[in-house]
Amino acid sequence: MATAAHARDKHVSVRVHPLTQAAGEVPSKRRDKAYYGITVDGRWLHSNNGRLTVLRGLKAVERFADLIKAPAYEPGEPVQIDVDCGKTSHCITVGKNRALQG
């Protein structure tokens, strides 16, 4: 979904949303540890197994945007979502050599 509209040279609205945890949990203030979700033309990006794609840290966001060749992304509003990297979310970080990894 992230690359399909781009391949047709159609303008794509990519927004990056800070994800906040459920009430009572303190979200990370460090941008390298914070969780971000992505919407493309208003639709949440999910992995092929149906879990919400969650990027950990702005470096992961920037690398993802580079890989899909998004010319720019807009800041989205914060959204309260319970991030569970083992069950409901597909969490991605930047590893060695700037590679994205789960």
Structure description:
The protein is an alpha/beta fold. It has one domain (14-21, 28-101). 14% of the residues lie in helices and 31% in strands. It contains two helices and eight strands. The protein has helices spanning 4-7, 58-67; strands at residues 14-20, 35-40, 43-44, 52-56, 74-75, 79-80, 89-94, 100-101. Strands 1, 2, 3, 4, 5, 6, 7 and 8 form an eight-stranded mixed beta sheet that branches. The radius of gyration is 13 Å and the shape is globular. The two termini are 19 Å apart. The model has no long low-confidence stretch (mean pLDDT 80). Residues 1-24 are annotated as: Disordered. Residues 1-12 have a biased composition (Basic and acidic residues).
Instruction: Provide the low-confidence segments as ranges.
Output: none
**Approximate strand percentage:** 25-35%
Number of discrete helical segments: 2
Query: Shape, please?
Result: globular
- Overall residue-averaged pLDDT value: 80
